[in-house]
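Q: Hi! First time doing this. I have a protein sequence and I read that you can turn it into a structure. Is that right? Here it is:
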Amino acid sequence: MWGQPGHPLAVRPAPFASPPASTSWWQRGATGEPRTAVSGTLALGLRSAKMARVEAVLLVAGQAVPPRRLAQLALLADATEARTIVTKLNTVYDQWSTPFRVERVAAGYRLLTRPHYALWLGKLHLREANHRLSPPALETVVIIAYRQPLTRAEIEEIRGVSCAEILKQLLERGLVRISGTDDSLGRPFLFVTTPVFLETFGLQDLSELPLAEKLRWSPRDRDAADAGPGAADSRDEGGE
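A: Yes, that's right. Below is the predicted 3D structure, encoded as structure tokens:
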């Protein structure tokens, strides 16, 4: 029986327990460099119960988990403690040269592999073929990201070609969504990007887009600037 003295499986090494000094991989990380001395459980790569729960949640979530939601799922005090635990996990991951770490994307955290494994993993899971955007689709979603919210006609005015089918593809993949309707004739749909867009491109928010401060504006911003401050006052008075 398990646990009886003399049984060959009675004594089992605990996960992450320190092995004999002769075990070379234990003293060296994935890069082959000797590990530096770190005090406490982090030196042994140990995880507290809270760290283990956070790690488990992020492992199976499949999407970015906001700090508050992470705290609820991992039975933590609040979002602040969730962020602290994530920092501790990343310290362990960095110390032990793991191929993954927790990254902040969109409005939450995801457990992701490190960038230098992307090419190999893409080939292994055919991820590149499944997730690659065509040049027209990439151009369209970038226009939406920088100019949102905007209508299909405004997108086509910038691109110079019809984009109905591309917008359909972007909607199906969850990269863009319809946020409402414009006040113009026919009340066309307004398109904006989604949290999936931020996750796909590894952004926390739209301010991290290249040259965001210079390039981000919507057609409504342009119309308001062209009309001048007096026009906005007139519209407000007319609505009362």
